[in-house]
Amino acid sequence: MLSSLHQAQGALRDLTRIVHDFPSEGIVFEDLTPVLADPEAYRAIVRVLAEFARSQNIDLIGGLDARGFLLGSAVAYELGVGVLAIRKGGKLPPPVHTISYDLEYGSAQLEIPSSGIDLRGKRVLLVDDVLATGGTLHASRELLEQAGAQVAGLAVVLEVDGLHGRERLSDVPLFVLNTHEVSSGDT
């Protein structure tokens, strides 16, 4: 795993695109699209996330809308488990479980189907690209727990240090591939 870890961290350093003032003024957005488009980097990231997932004895991957879908489905495939898309509000037909939450730059809703999938007792690993304030991961966890699932762990590619997202999620195993420190001008 060590070579995959170093390869993934190097790709993050070299390929991440930094976009200032997106999605709103004062936000520094770290776009992982170029990293995920690189086949070797993508494979290395998936291998590292899958290794963590194996240690959590999971039944299902929960991929957060939208880059969490790309990562989560590849990790689920690697492990031979199912994947659940945790969607932004209004994207799924009813009936749905819904939760509202605050973001660092607004508010949002997340949804999962409330019929057709029995989540009771399932151990789920949540996968996303970036942990900033922790709002989306925290809301996803609450949403899955309302549906009867147990969140066994969280895995993200990048953590924006200094926004205290980790603190909101401290009682569940968290894997972070790489940490970026907030500098002056970042939020």
From TrEMBL:
Pathway: Purine metabolism; AMP biosynthesis via salvage pathway; AMP from adenine: step 1/1. Its main location: cytoplasm. It is found in: Cytoplasm. Residues 36-177 form the Phosphoribosyltransferase domain. InterPro entries: Ade_phspho_trans, PRTase-like, PRTase_dom, UPRTase/APRTase. CDD domains: PRTases_typeI (cd06223). Its EC number is 2.4.2.7. SUPFAM superfamilies: PRTase-like. It catalyses: AMP + diphosphate = 5-phospho-alpha-D-ribose 1-diphosphate + adenine. GO terms for molecular function: adenine phosphoribosyltransferase activity. Keywords: Cytoplasm, Glycosyltransferase, Purine salvage, Transferase. Pfam families: Pribosyltran (PF00156). Belongs to the purine/pyrimidine phosphoribosyltransferase family. Homodimer. Catalyzes a salvage reaction resulting in the formation of AMP, that is energically less costly than de novo synthesis. This is Adenine phosphoribosyltransferase. The gene is apt.
